[in-house]
Write a structure and sequence with these properties.
The structure holds two protein chains of two kinds.
Chain A lengths: L1 H5 L7 H20 L1 H18 L9 H23 L3 H11 L7 H8 L3 H11 L5 H8 L3 H20 L1
Chain B lengths: L2 H8 L5 H20 L5 E6 L6 E5 L4 E5 L5 H11 L4 E3 L5 H11 L17 H11 L7 E2 H7 L6 H9 L12 E2 L12 H10 L8
Helix pairs in contact in B: 6-7
Classes of the chains: A mainly alpha, B alpha/beta.
Chain lengths: ~160, ~210
């Protein structure tokens, strides 16, 4: 029993981590890559998380950590699309035809899809992930100032597209 | 002012539909992680006449069976601490055990045929509990005999402790070990359950 006390407190059992963060990861991915590819990204995100999980420090910010992984998986999808040169609008149409995309704010998310990668991630990590600037910077691998700027520019662009 | 921020906040996809989709995606993930060996431990709830037991299994076998009084979170926290935090819910992996427990509780099964993982037992506890596993259905033994079988004839108190902290009750039948002189002795699941199990197995005559 005393041996147990000497160990540092562990990360929570993975299932609890999954249940705690599945919704924000799902929403982040639906907004970032669309409902059709969200599931593949979701599975890959948590597979990566499970692989790295035992090496994680117990005091890690798990929410920021898993959203960082989700952000990278989403980036892979967007890169793949760019290589296939498939216009974003077309993807949104396909999704809508599937009946899977029944978002009330389709226009807004479509505009988010069209943002440059860093601005898109900054906007989504802020408004869906609810992360502070410092964690956004860490997720996308830039300075806090650069993250703040990306978020600001992204919001300006959205304002132009959506509100005019 | 700040209209776009408000729109983004309101459109953040927090609908019951998205909640359900996230839950389904998480379920698919857990099933896959448990089935493919990515996770180290799978667990599930198993119904019994005592209430819902928590069962946990590793690649080597059943590592833990917990009575309903022990909260699920506590069972999982201890497994994470002692073995691995890579734990997912995996009802499919516990299907065989579920079936055998049903048969046992209905009286149609005398022996369990599932592999066991003894990772949560000390070396001494393993010796005691290996001796315990050899007590046949319908028979009983004593703490003294278990201690002797484990090679420490004077360690009946230590044997009692090892039996009391048996991580896999029922499958390792510690309920078949009584005090010398016929007193039932303690049981992690409660003395009433010990009596109930011994009556089920025919080792004790039901009280009138």
């Amino acid at each position: 029993m005393s041996a147990e006390l000497k160990l540092s407190p562990p990360v929570p059992p993975f299932q609890r981590f999954l249940d705690t963060h599945r919704e924000e990861v799902w929403r982040f991915l639906v907004a970032s890559v669309g409902p059709v590819e969200a599931d593949d990204c979701f599975q890959e995100t948590f597979i990566s998380a499970l692989n790295a999980y035992p090496r994680l420090r117990a005091d890690s910010n798990l929410r920021a950590w898993v959203l960082t992984i989700a952000h990278r998986k989403a980036l892979d999808v967007h890169r793949g699309r760019a290589q296939r040169a498939l216009p974003v609008a077309e993807i949104a149409d396909v999704a809508a035809e599937d009946g899977a995309q029944r978002m009330r704010d389709e226009g807004l998310w479509e505009a988010v899809h069209r943002l440059p990668p860093r601005q898109r991630s900054a906007v989504l990590l802020r408004f869906i992930g609810d992360l502070p600037h410092r964690d956004i910077a860490q997720a996308i691998g830039c300075s806090e100032e650069a993250a703040r700027r990306s978020l600001h520019e992204g919001l300006n662009k959205l304002r132009e597209v959506v509100l005019t | 002012m700040k209209e776009i921020e408000k729109m983004l906040a309101n459109a953040s996809l927090t609908t019951p539909e998205h909640e359900a989709q996230a839950a389904q995606a998480a379920q698919r993930f857990s099933a896959h992680a448990a089935g493919s060996g990515l996770a180290d431990i799978g667990y599930a709830s198993v119904d019994s006449p005592f209430g819902a037991l928590t069962a946990a299994v590793t690649d080597d076998g059943v590592v833990r069976l917990a009575f309903p009084e022990e909260p699920l979170d506590q069972v999982l926290d201890r497994l994470a601490l002692r073995l691995s935090p890579r734990i997912v819910e995996a009802p499919a992996r516990l299907e065989q055990l579920r079936r055998q427990l049903d048969e046992y509780f209905s009286g149609s099964r005398r022996d369990f045929d599932v592999p066991l993982d003894r990772a949560l037992m000390s070396a001494f506890a393993q010796r005691i509990l290996t001796a315990t596993s050899a007590i046949p259905y319908g028979s009983v033994s004593t703490y003294n005999e278990m201690a002797a079988a484990a090679g420490s004839p004077r360690g009946s108190r230590a044997a009692g402790n090892a039996l009391g902290s048996n991580p896999i009750p029922l499958l390792v039948p510690c309920h078949r070990v009584l005090r010398s002189g016929g007193n039932l002795g303690g049981y992690a699941g409660g003395p009433e359950r010990k009596r109930w199990l011994l009556e089920l197995e025919g080792a004790l005559t039901p009280r009138p």
